[in-house]
Amino acid sequence: DPDSGDNGLLLYSLVNNQMNEFDIDENTGQIFTVSVAGKAGTFYLEVQAADQGTGRLTTRTTVNVTLDPSSSNNIVVVVLNQKINAVERNIAAVKRVLEGKLAWTVYIIDVYSNEFERKARSSTDVTHVKIIAFDEANQEVSAEDVKRKLREQNSNIEMELEKIFSTSVTAAIEEAPADSATPELVATIVLGVLLACTLVAFLVYVLFAIKRKRYNKQAEIMEGIDQNGSLKSLETLKHTNN
């Protein structure tokens, strides 16, 4: 606002009452989140700027805020037996099928293949589709619930996808690999190995000590025999052995 004084002093506010998710600094117009945990998608915020002069002039604009849910723990991977380029061409239709059968809002986070890109696009009929679902309240649906619904609607989903790709389609759920060993488990294993090594070393030391003691005893007995093969006095030998 080029005006001076109160006529040039602008205050900003949100006018569509979304203060639970977002807020705005009335002096700078900076928008920031308040509580968006478990939410995703695009929010349309109506922002008003008003000067502080007599008669207060105002204007409004819409700010689109997109929340990226890609770091969510509730992402589910659906594996389609189709080439990745075919899935990419029909991704909007795939989204509509999933939303229709799951009865939730579905966001497709990523489409990829585990093979090298050139080979995957020409010969590999395996494509991974990362999805996340949100309910009517725009709350994130747990991965387990999404998987359960996908299993329940699997035949219906595949039937609709066959219409899109004009061929038989399978839609499988990719299960996450087993969790790797926790630091506590690794520490326990390492400690067990160290204890086992210590025990083995101790046993070797004991056996060596016993063997050495026996060797020394035999040497003492041999010292009781002189060079001519005659025994020394038995009393001396008995004293030595005791």
From TrEMBL:
One GO term describing the cellular component: catenin complex
* UniProt xrefs under InterPro entries: Cadherin, Cadherin-like_dom, Cadherin-like_sf
Keywords noted in UniProt: Calcium, Membrane, Repeat, Signal, Transmembrane, Transmembrane helix
Q: Does the keyword Membrane apply?
A: yes
Any one GO molecular-function label of the UniProt entry: beta-catenin binding
* Topology in membrane: Single-pass membrane protein
**Where, by residue number, does the polypeptide cross the bilayer?**
185-208
Q: Which domain of life is it from?
A: Eukaryota
CDD domains for the chain: Cadherin_repeat
Q: Biological process GO terms, please?
A: adherens junction organization; calcium-dependent cell-cell adhesion via plasma membrane cell adhesion molecules; cell migration; cell morphogenesis; cell-cell adhesion mediated by cadherin; cell-cell junction assembly; homophilic cell adhesion via plasma membrane adhesion molecules
What region holds the Cadherin domain?
A: 1-77
Q: Which PROSITE patterns match?
A: CADHERIN_2
Pfam families per the UniProt record, alphabetical: Cadherin
Q: Any idea where this protein resides?
A: Membrane
Q: What name appears for this protein in its UniProt entry? A: Cadherin domain-containing protein
